[in-house]
Amino acid sequence: MCDQLPDGQATLHSLDVPPDQPTSQVFRLILLRNGAQVSAFVNRCPHFGVPLANRQEQLLQKPLISLSCNVHYARFRWSDGLCESGDCKGESLIPVPLDINGGGLVCIGQSS
Question: Domain with 98 in it: what CATH number?
Fold first, then answer.
């Protein structure tokens, strides 16, 4: 639910994986909330393909401004995921399309 995400913060999330799937196949994303608006990026740095962070306490962020990779400290804009500094400058995080239904449930994909 949207209201369960801390406002002005980025939060790590993983989608459930069926028991017969390897944990390496877990889909990891970063949800960013600004009031009623929620956006998301794949938790993967374009430089080495590693997660920006593996645990919430490792996620480097300046709320509403930027996210940083905790492996090599590339800095990405909060608004669009563009890398502003670091080895992958000019590349971007992969956006994840979201839809928030009338009940505040955050779903991957865009409503038709």
Answer: 2.102.10.10
